[in-house]
Write a structure and sequence with these properties.
Helices cover 49% and strands 13% of the residues. The chain has 294 residues and is of the alpha/beta class. Helix 9 (265-275) crosses helix 10.
Length: 294
């Protein structure tokens, strides 16, 4: 007998990094299920514009996930406008790519601040709200990079391994409290973050809506972990059972070890400039405008 799906009608959901990409797609999918959604983004005008475009009472608020006061203020405002928080989706994250030794210390620190500290901070603040109520959900945007290592994204992989470890530990720590942890592990997703990066053989790039629908499934079923696509999860679990030399040979065969190292720098220029807070050159600016117009 099929398990009855939980209703998301009226659930208050806060999504970090919700102005674009996976965050926006997740907001759209949850709104379709009747949830009341708030999106937070470091780009406050973008958050407001996205919320206005999505409608259905969605609110867009400024959010810096690396700053406790900003994150706490965001959740306070969500609860003031929409009601007690039911779900936090820790979606905000960045992915600089390139040779490890070429990555600046400043870029590595920003990566850790957003991808690890931001997730830790958001999880703490949500649990503080959920614990007295005996209920709540935290969804972490991890990655298949949290289960393996991909050349050209060493520090990024480290952050996603941290997210997986954090989520698994909290799942055990919170058992019996009514607070549920969930994690979604996509392969490359067709967003700005993944611009200029190809797909591994046999594993086509996913779409934001695929990840969004998986998040909905996690919340409706109570499952802890899902890969996007499912075949990526099966392959990951199978490789974990293999001798290392065999697993690594398969990764080389599928070109998974070349994806990030061979990323197109021109296609990524606007994104890399934005996440590092530096002015983009004319080619990058043109690419960014083309994305916004799409």
């Amino acid at each position: 007998m099929a398990k009855t799906l939980r209703s998301l009608e009226g659930q208050v959901v806060a999504i970090t990094g919700g102005g674009r990409g996976i965050g926006r797609a997740t907001a759209t999918a949850l709104i379709a299920k009747g949830a009341r959604v708030a999106i937070g983004d470091i780009d406050a005008p973008l958050a407001e514009r996205t919320a206005s475009e999505l409608g259905s009472g969605t609110i867009g608020l400024p959010l810096d996930v690396t700053d406790r006061a900003s994150f706490a203020g965001f959740l306070d405002e969500v609860e003031r406008q929409l009601g007690p928080l039911d779900v936090l989706v820790n979606n905000a994250g960045i992915m600089p790519v390139g040779p490890f030794v070429a990555e600046t210390d400043a870029a590595a620190e920003r990566l850790v601040d957003i991808n690890i500290h931001g997730v830790i901070l958001g999880s703490k603040l949500a649990i503080e709200r959920f614990a007295p109520r005996g209920r709540g959900h935290i969804v972490q945007l991890a990655s298949i990079a949290g289960k393996g290592g991909f050349p050209g994204g060493a520090a990024y992989c480290a952050t996603k391994h941290a997210v997986v470890g954090l989520t698994e530990a909290l799942r055990s720590e919170l058992r019996g409290t009514g607070i549920e942890m969930h994690q979604v592990l996509p392969i490359g997703v067709n967003t700005e973050l993944y611009s200029g990066v190809g797909a591994a053989r046999g594993f086509p790039t996913a779409e934001p809506v695929d990840v969004a629908n998986t998040i909905v499934e996690l919340l409706q079923t109570g499952k802890f972990e899902l890969f996007v696509p499912r075949t990526a999860g099966a392959a990951t679990r199978l490789q974990a059972l293999m001798p290392r030399r065999v697993a690594e040979a398969i990764i080389r065969l599928t070109k998974g070890d070349q994806l990030l190292l061979s990323a197109d720098p021109v296609a990524r220029a606007a994104y890399e400039a934005r996440i590092n807070g530096v002015p983009a050159g004319p080619v990058a600016v043109a690419a960014e405008r083309e994305k916004d117009a799409a």
